[in-house]
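Why should sequence recovery work at all? Because a backbone constrains its sequence more than one might expect. Tight turns favour small or flexible residues, buried strands favour hydrophobic ones, and helices have their own preferences. The token representation captures these environments compactly. In the example below, the structure is given first.
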């Protein structure tokens, strides 16, 4: 997006922070589905949603990981794994 032609409201939609927040909300929806299937505890899904409300991401660190892995989603998941709780160890397998 060319910044001189964009209104602040429109430009904010395309910011990396917004993209990562949306991706995190998608992960929260996935956690809901896993909880419904009994794969993870329902409390775990609730904890992910609690984090999603005010989560912010270190975009520079995600960019750094992406340069190493050459994969944007892996970079995001590496950072978001540290942002969500509880960890996989508390989950059960179906």
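From this structural description, the recovered sequence reads:
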């Amino acid at each position: 997006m060319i910044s001189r032609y964009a209104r602040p409201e429109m430009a904010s939609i395309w910011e990396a922070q917004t993209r990562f927040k949306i991706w995190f909300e998608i992960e929260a929806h996935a956690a809901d589905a896993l909880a419904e299937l009994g794969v993870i505890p329902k409390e775990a899904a609730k904890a992910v949603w609690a984090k999603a409300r005010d989560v912010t991401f270190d975009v520079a660190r995600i960019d750094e990981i992406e340069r190493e892995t050459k994969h944007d989603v892996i970079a995001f998941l590496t950072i978001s794994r540290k942002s969500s709780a509880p960890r996989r160890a508390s989950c059960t397998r179906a």
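A few observations help interpret the result. The chain has five helices and no strands.
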